[in-house]
Amino acid sequence: MKKLEEYVVSIPDFPEEGIIFRDVTSVLQDAEGLQLAVNTMQELVKDLDYDVVAGPESRGFIFGTPIAYNNKKPFVLIRKAGKLPRETVSVSYDLEYGSAVIEMHKDSIQPGQKVLIVDDLIATGGTTEAMVKLVESLGGEVVGIVVLMELAGLKGREKLAGYRLDSAICYQGK
């Protein structure tokens, strides 16, 4: 049986020289790779007590929904601004070049609910930190964050000190 890392295609010098791009689509397009990814992430958080799974578009949806389904939990969408039809709460955050806004429906998290955040990747941690703020703004408690891949060289884990963060694959570089 292949290891999870073997399903990830690494592309050197993309999007710029010196960067190694870790392509999640190679995991998704292989049935065994996808199953291994979801099972591995789910196994990492099997000891957590949570009420709700939340994930950002689009790859957080891909990995978060089966984890929620398998554990009989609801799944909450975190989307880019302007994509949700009902009343929302939002958080803006900085990107490498500019800023972005994410939002959730105002009624998606109830005060006191324990939330597991699921995504495909943590790099600098800016998006993940924004998701934590969003959940907490609704009174939720982030009890864990699980990602498929962590780019440790970008130090995203440091932004999330005090929160449990599990990664299925950890790449030491950027």
Automatic annotation (TrEMBL):
Q: For this UniProt record, give its keywords in alphabetical order, as a comma-separated list.
A: Cytoplasm, Glycosyltransferase, Purine salvage, Transferase
User: What does UniProt give as the signal peptide span?
Assistant: none
Q: Which reaction does it catalyse?
A: AMP + diphosphate = 5-phospho-alpha-D-ribose 1-diphosphate + adenine
What EC number(s) has UniProt assigned to this enzyme?
A: 2.4.2.7
What's a single GO MF annotation on this record? AMP binding
Question: Record's Pfam families?
Answer: Pribosyltran (PF00156)
The record's similarity note reads:
Belongs to the purine/pyrimidine phosphoribosyltransferase family.
Q: What protein name is recorded for this chain?
A: Adenine phosphoribosyltransferase
* Higher taxonomy: Bacteria, Bacillati, Bacillota, Clostridia, Lachnospirales
- Which gene codes for it? apt
